[in-house]
Amino acid sequence: MLTLIALSIGIAVSLLVLIYVYYELSYDRNWSDSGNIYRAYSFGDLGDDKINSAATPSVLGTVLARQEGVEEVTRVIPGTRKVVRGEGIKSMESSFFYVDSNFFEVFDLPFVSGNKNDFKRPDAIVISLSTSQRLFGERNPIGETLGTQLGVEYVIVGVVEDFPGNSHLSFDFAANWCSLEQLLRRRRDLPQAAMLDNWLYLNTYTYLKLAEGVGEEAFDKLLAEARHKLDSSIVSSYISQQEDSGRVSLNIGIQPIHDIHLFSELENELKPPTSPLYVKVFTIILLFVLLMTALNFINLTTAKASRRYKEVAVRKYFGAGRRKLIYQFLIEAIVYSLIATFVALVMVELLLPAFNRVFDIEISSAGFIKQPDTIWILVLTMLLGITAGAYPAVFFSGLKPQVAIKGSMKVKRWGVVLRGLLVSFQVGLTACLLVLSFGMYKQLAFLRSAEHGFNSDNAVVVELDSSEEDALEQFVVKLESLDELAFYGRGVYVPGDDPGLVSFRRSDDSTQVLLLAMNHIDEGYLDALGAELQAGRRIDAAKNNEFRQEALINEAAADFLGFRVKDTMGLELVGGRSSDDIQVFDIVGVVANISHTGIKNSDRPMIFLYGDNTQDVRYVVIRFKEGMSASGVEALTLLWDNTVSDMHIELSYLNEIKEGFYKDDKRFAQISLMFGLVALLLTAFSIISMAAFEVQYYRKNIFIRRVMAAPFRNMLLYGLRNFCLYVALGIAAAIPISNFLLHLWLDDYLKSFNVSLYVFILPLASLLLISLFAGFLTGSREIKRELYS
Amino acid sequence: MIHTRNLVKSYRNKLVETPALINVNIDIGDGEFVAVAGHSGSGKTALFNIMGLMELPDAGEVYFMGRELSSLSEKAREILRRGNIGYVFRQFNLIDEMSVWENVELPLLYLKLSRKQRRLMVEEALARFQLGHIQKYYPQQLTGLQQQTVSLARASVFKPALLLADEPTGDINSSAGNVVMDFLSEINERGITVVVFTNLMQDAHKAQRIIQLHDGHVVTDAAQISANQ
């Protein structure tokens, strides 16, 4: 039973890890001809700043479509959150994309209903299956009309299956870009109109399908011939000098879509990529778990076989041939393996939902069974059975029955040493995993407690999502009436967002283009966030006019500009979001760095401006008085419900947003701990086998001690003295290895906690205690069985 | 049935060589009931192993069912053993994971018999040894006498030409030992040659003939006049 449990657990864990690794490696391979699909990206120099973005200018698509070697070009433009209306439908949607009419030729997502050819009409829209079920229920949405805030109306021409989980692309709505393009051409006054011809407006994801045989290298050559320089209209509008084109350039590269998820180091990805390090780590874990499972199985099988010594002798006496005995052992081991695999598959089925949650993936059991590599694990299982069964099969079938019939198998010294080394290896491996996971949790605690530039206690963020603009305005005004309120302030971005970049130049040095993240805020924003001014003063809105504004920058911007914090006052910057929006900005103060994505990443240089009501202000940050958060949230929700009728309040606690920065770190710490515990379990089986084996080896000497009336404790310690050494050896070996691995992990972080002895002591001491407990419990039982039964 | 000529056997380890049998000459005919008696170290076990075709002598000849064995390979001896020799051991050596039925059936599994044939033979053996009521029990649930009885049933289920019993009463009390010896007599009366190896003279006297060993030599080899005869 012990063998079966150990083997089942090992196979189940191996299968789950294999699922994860396969899932990560299979990203974006679902599309037909995915090997020929590439994504364009932007890279370049803007003065001393670098661009390295997955987003490209919208105009690029038109240029690429004319290139030799390109079969198709299709663009994806993520839309902003918007209210989508239809018959009986009003919903705030955040996954609304605009795509070229040939999108479904390149990404052949199956149509559940409707026809992909109908997507060529300019007002076509396609929705995902889950969106259709959410908005329309059982109703057929084909032919239904949906409208948006911009006044554009779309006709639903198709319902597609949801994007698979292992795709970097995903949307609920895909509207034909043509209708938006036509609108923007008519309405050049709209800020978004700049995307039509501005090469610095990086908001489009451009995909191209290359002709068969045209690879990345060949395409790069073709592209070099058509390389465009920066659109100089933005630059020339506010400088009087000729630009130095050598210091301002935008280049385009392409990357295979298979590489996006694991190997893309670009900014502005549609979906956060996964570091290939994690896949490598988990592949190594997979191999280790398989190895430990195999070794455990062989260990336990041979230990079990030794108890059948006499049975083999009797069978041989009565004429059982060697071949028959070999077959018997092999078949037993294979059947064992198959039963264990079956149990493992059941365990995988039961654990899959929790596994999906922890690993943040979406694998169904049907999807898992389809993986071709699953067949290989079943083949491996058979091989495992044969390997484990081979040793006892060959060994026991060759026994001299007249020797074996007399008693139990004589345990050889090398058998004890081999098992001991196996225990050392497994203990060492388990120790490494436990130290690593403990270190990860320490790092997580460090990250959470570090200074983030804002106070996350007693504060919430409310997203101003509604089509009822007046109601929103009323809501904000009425905030002042809340007794629980300490401060409130509005901003376009809050921590958790990745603010967009805007280009600026210094008024006294126009040669250098500076990219700063820009946030429009109001006078209450910094107090609401609990962010501190490091130098200078707050913005005086009275001094702002249409050409000149006061601004704040953060410490990272001051550093970026090459100034000490106190010396930035009086600095002037020139810039804006579009060529029609160029202003001069007087820097009047420096704010402490406010972390928007966590302290793992370097602080982005930021500029803060006061916005007016026409700005796209999305959030209000509300800080409650000490101890009044709970009642404050209640009052806030009531206020919202009484004021805004079309949407429920979208409220996030600032400490939850901060927690979200380290979601991945937490996930990997949990995974590491999980594997550490699995390794501990597998090691325990090995320890049990080793302890029993060692008692057998010293059986005679233990018996003599018993005859001499030695205390039980004395017999036990004598019988297990080598066992203790092997456990200690494993732990000792694990210390430098786990130290190395931990530092390797922490090197990925800009800031990390100080690794002290404490990180090692707790997990290793726990492991030592558990190992000794398991060993001594087993040894004690074995001695009693041998000597007292 | 089985004959030995100038049999010599020694056991060697790294340090010493111990002679077990020295020029042993024995003739056992079909249907005999013979006891090989001697103290511990007299060579009984060595003789048991050679007669049981488990080992070959260092010198001399062994004939079993007309065949000389010294040139036979282990495989050939295994084939010869199968179905022709039954074994009873001092420590019963039943298989704990098998029921009484399955233990008795074990030798038949290697004889190319159909399931029906095996079943009939096992049933007959169980009936003969009055084991039917415990056929589903496991060895650890049985008394010493019951276990040894099962062992006898196993050794004789396939009607071997020769049955070798190595100290069959060594691990049971004397009254149980008498029962075992009576069973062995009964087996012999069915025409099976029985050779009992024992250091208990009261058991040896139950046989028709006693061969006494001492320090590897045959000291006496005489027919036994039993009280029953």
Structure description:
- The complex is a heterodimer of chains A (789) and B (229).
- Chain A is an alpha+beta fold and 789 residues long.
- Chain A folds into 4 domains: 1-30 and 275-410, no CATH class; 36-263, no CATH class; 412-450 and 659-789, no CATH class; 459-658, no CATH class.
- Chain A has 25 helices and 25 strands.
- In chain A, strand 1 and strand 2 (49-53) form a beta hairpin.
- In chain A, helix 15 runs parallel beside helix 24 (721-746) and helix 15 (413-449) runs antiparallel to helix 25 (758-788).
- Chain A is elongated and about 105 Å long.
- In chain A, 41% of the residues are buried.
- By secondary structure, chain B is of the alpha/beta class.
- Chain B has a domain at 30-48 and 85-223: Rossmann fold, CATH 3.40.50.300.
- Chain B is built from 7 helices and 10 strands.
- Chain B has helices spanning 44-51, 74-81, 100-105, 115-128, 144-156, 174-189, 201-204; strands at residues 2-12, 17-28, 33-37, 59-64, 67-68, 85-88, 162-166, 193-198, 209-214, 217-223.
- Chain B has a 6-stranded mixed β-sheet with strand order 6-7-8-3-9-10, sandwiched between helices.
- In chain B, helix 4 (115-128) packs across helix 5 (144-156) and helix 5 packs parallel to helix 6.
- Chain B is globular.
- In chain B, 44% of the residues are buried.
- The mean pLDDT of chain B is 89.
- The chains are: A alpha+beta (789), B alpha/beta (229).
- At the A-B interface, helix 10 of A face helix 2 of B.
In short:
In chain A, 48% of the residues lie in helices and 19% in strands.
Q: Give the overall average pLDDT of chain B.
A: 89
Biggest protein-protein contact in the assembly: A-B, 16 and 21 residues
In the sheet with the most strands of chain B, the strands line up as 6-7-8-3-9-10
**Counted beta strands of chain A:** 25
The biggest sheet of chain A, with number of strands, parallel, antiparallel or mixed sense and barrel status, is: 12 strands, mixed
- Compute the CA-based radius of gyration of chain A: 33 Å
